[in-house]
Amino acid sequence: MSASTPSRWIKKPVVIEAIQWVRTLVSLDSIGEFTQHVIERRDDGRPYKIAEQFMLLLDGWDDLALDVLGESEVVERRDGGFDAVVYDRLHGTWVNVRKGDWIIRGVEGEFYPCREDVFAATYEAAP
Q1: What is d(CA 119, CA 15) in angstroms, rounded to the nearest whole number?
Q2: Which of 5, 20, 80, 113 is most enclosed, with most CB atoms within 10 A?
Q3: Is residue 127 part of a domain?
């Protein structure tokens, strides 16, 4: 499939999983569980090593982010109005998240944020 000139396309209907970041402890726990990536499993299939893929940038809650991103990057992202990051494994980068953003699990297992207004205009609850 290719097009050498601009043409119109219709997005395929794809069911996604998503959760909204509302900056509460319940939301933090739920998103943490939703975004966990099992690196290694025990012989019986239970998770053994898990990678965190959601980190807070909030002052006092940012120890992990400081270790992973470094202080200057955490401060820069925080100054930009972001209070968390989610790891996009597909592109190998941490993506900024604001309160109200939806965290979407993409078709290849990647995670990315979507602004609340864009999510409302693009998605509806699946039956």
Answers
A1: 13
A2: 113
A3: no
Find the domain containing 95 and state its range. Answer: 17-122
Taking a C-beta distance cutoff of 8 angstroms, is the pair 111, 88 a contact? yes
| pLDDT, mean of residues 39-48 | 80
Report whether pLDDT(2) > 70. Answer: no
Q: Based on the structure, what is the number of domains in the chain? A: 1
In a domain, 22, yes or no: yes
As a whole number of angstroms, the distance between CA 52 and CA 76 comes to: 21
| pTM attached to this predicted model | 0.82
Interatomic CA distance for residues 121 and 16, integer angstroms:
15
Residue 8 domain-assigned (yes or no)? no
Q: At a CB cut-off of 8 Å and minimum separation 6, what does 108 contact?
A: 90
